[in-house]
Design brief:
Blueprint (H helix, E strand, L loop, with lengths): L1 H19 L5 H15 L3 H31 L3 H11 L1 H12 L1 H18 L10 H9 L6
Helix pairs in contact: 2-3, 4-5
C-alpha cells in the first residue's frame, strides 16, 4: 500500500511539473506537425497521429487563451471585495460554507447551470413539457425512450 501511495505521489508530481511550464509555443508546433502528418502520411496510423497532434494543439491553444482571459480577474479587487462582503453577512457566510464543504451541492449546481445554458441554446422556443421530449431531443432518434 505504501508503494502505491509513493507511485501516486510521483505521478502527481510529474503531472504538476508538466502543467506548470508554459506550453503556448507547443500548440502551433503540434498543429503544424499534425496537419503535415494528416496530409502527407500514407499509412492510416500516421494520419491518426496527425489528428491527435491537431487535437492536442487545439486543446493547448484553448487552455492558453483561457489563462490569458482570466488573468486580469486574478488581480482584480472586486472578487475579493465580494467574498469579504459575503463573509460579513450571515446568509452569505452560510452559502459560502455550503459551496466549500459540500461537493454534491457543487455537482448539482453545475448540472443546473449547464442545463440552463443548454436550454437557452435549445431549438425549442419554450422548454419541453416533458422530460421524455427533452431527452429524446438530446439523445437522438436512435435511442427509443
Amino acid at each position: 500500500m505504501a508503494f502505491m501511495h509513493s507511485v501516486y505521489e510521483k505521478i502527481m508530481a510529474l503531472i504538476v511539473k508538466a502543467l506548470s511550464f508554459d506550453a503556448s509555443w507547443l500548440s502551433p508546433l503540434l498543429m503544424l506537425m499534425g496537419c503535415i502528418a494528416q496530409k502527407r502520411a500514407s499509412k492510416a496510423c500516421f494520419r491518426e497521429l496527425g489528428r491527435v497532434g491537431i487535437g492536442l494543439g487545439l486543446v493547448l491553444l484553448a487552455l492558453h487563451l483561457l489563462v490569458e482571459m482570466w488573468q486580469p480577474l486574478g488581480s482584480a479587487q472586486m472578487p475579493s471585495a465580494i467574498i469579504i462582503a459575503l463573509l460579513h453577512d450571515q446568509a452569505g457566510h452560510d452559502l459560502l460554507s455550503i459551496l466549500i464543504s459540500d461537493p454534491i451541492f457543487d455537482v448539482l449546481l453545475t448540472a443546473a447551470v449547464t442545463f440552463a445554458a443548454h436550454s437557452i441554446g435549445s431549438k425549442h422556443p419554450h422548454p419541453p413539457s416533458r422530460w421524455k421530449d427533452l431527452l429524446a431531443d438530446n439523445i437522438g432518434p436512435r435511442h427509443h425512450l
